[in-house]
Specification:
The protein has 351 residues and is α/β, with parallel strands linked by helices. It contains 13 helices and eleven strands. The strands form two sheets. Strands 1-7-6-5-4-2-3 form a seven-stranded mixed beta sheet, with helices on both faces. It has a four-stranded antiparallel beta sheet with strand order 8-9-11-10, covered by helices on one side. It is globular. The structure holds 4'-deoxy-4'-aminopyridoxal-5'-phosphate.
């Protein structure tokens, strides 16, 4: 029994997965009469490949991994939910996450009736220590969700502390790297051979510009990936997602160029915002957004809405008093934002 097998819920270990028509026959045939599809030739009349073989092969090549180390699903959100269902016994196990962070970890825990323990980041730099998480853990802590670069704070988490956690936490550590392409830092995916209890999440929704197709990836030990495949819906990725993802991944150069432009704009936007009297602080960012503390987040949010600009109001989140999360747009959009904030400020001052 591997370390991963010992951590899986016993019902998952015991269960026999559903076997679809395309699981049972995946070769080429003259006539397909096995899946109760409509026999007339129409686009999308056939079920997609449930194993996503071509896509996983391609991602494996790009990432320097083996396809057995890759799970592909309906956004990273599917992987988050599947990991909780694989490792956490509802009503008795718990998971840990940093706060503030991506809200879906807590929501997916709630849906699965799993306690979510939130460990506050350091207010001074929004970073964490392995100790602080381990102190909040107990024998029923099965999963830790880290997010690096973190949403909504924008910073990378300290790699040394992540590794320290991997060395010491006996459950599964998940590092969500949705925004990694915007950071000048290596992926934790290079650690999965050494740490079998590490799962790394990435997505096509951010830098790759394909949020609409819903394609998320998990990189991990083949035993963990096989368990994820075992409980996913058979056809969790539809035919158009598979097709578009393959095409999009051929355009890595375009992605890299756009990321460079977005990062340059991130710096310009931060500089522009820092000049505004309503802005208290622009936090450093390794992502495609800026966390910005203003004098009155609700008032600025409303003022921007009146100008037709929507940002994310993060006021009320831990450590995010009067903070807005602002996605970096194209130069014209960023100019409009700065103008609108300047105008909103002068309105507020004149009131
Ligand atoms: N992780 C983080 C940190 C995110 O911010 C988001 C989306 N906001 C996701 C995952 C979800 O990504 P996907 O579109 O792949 O479900």
């Amino acid at each position: 029994m591997t370390e991963i097998t010992a951590l899986l819920r016993p019902n998952v270990l015991r269960m026999k997965p559903y076997s679809s028509a395309r699981d049972e026959f995946s070769g080429m045939a003259l006539v397909y009469l096995d899946a109760n599809e409509n026999p007339y030739p129409m686009e999308f009349s056939r079920y997609p490949d449930p194993s996503h073989t071509a896509l996983r092969d391609k991602i494996a090549l790009m990432k320097g991994l083996h396809p057995s180390q890759i799970f592909t699903g309906n956004g990273s959100d599917e992987a988050i939910d599947i990991l909780i269902r694989l490792f956490c016994e509802p009503g008795c196990d718990n998971l840990l996450t940093i706060a503030p962070s991506y809200g879906m970890y807590a929501v997916a825990a709630d849906v699965n009736n799993v306690e979510c323990r939130r460990v506050m980041l350091r207010p001074s730099d929004f970073d964490f220590t392995a100790d602080s998480l381990l102190m909040a853990a107990d024998g029923r802590s099965k999963l830790i969700f880290l997010c690096s670069p973190n949403n909504p704070t924008g910073n990378m988490l300290c790699r040394t502390e992540i590794v320290s956690l991997l060395d010491r936490f006996e459950g599964i550590t998940v590092v969500d790297e949705a925004y990694l392409d915007f950071a000048a830092a290596p992926s934790c995916a290079e650690l999965i051979d050494k740490y079998p209890r590490l799962v790394v999440l990435q997505t096509l929704s951010k830098a790759w510009g394909a949020a609409g197709i819903r394609l998320g990836m998990a990189f991990a030990n083949p035993v963990a990936i096989a368990a994820m495949q075992k409980i996913k819906y058979s056809y969790n990725l539809n035919s158009s997602t598979l097709e578009i993802a393959l095409e999009r991944l051929d355009r890595e150069e375009d992605m890299r160029r756009q990321v460079e432009e977005i990062c340059a704009e991130r710096a310009r936007l931060a500089e522009g915002l820092e000049q505004l009297p309503t802005v208290v602080k622009v936090y450093p960012s390794d992502a495609n957004f800026l966390l910005v503390k203003v004098r009155d987040a609700n008032a600025t949010y409303e003022a921007l809405l009146r100008e037709g600009i929507v940002v994310r109001n993060r006021h009320g989140l831990d450590l995010c008093d009067n903070c807005l999360r602002i996605t970096v747009g194209v130069p014209r959009e960023n100019d409009l934002l700065i103008d609108a904030m300047r105008k909103g400020t002068s309105n507020t001052i004149s009131v």
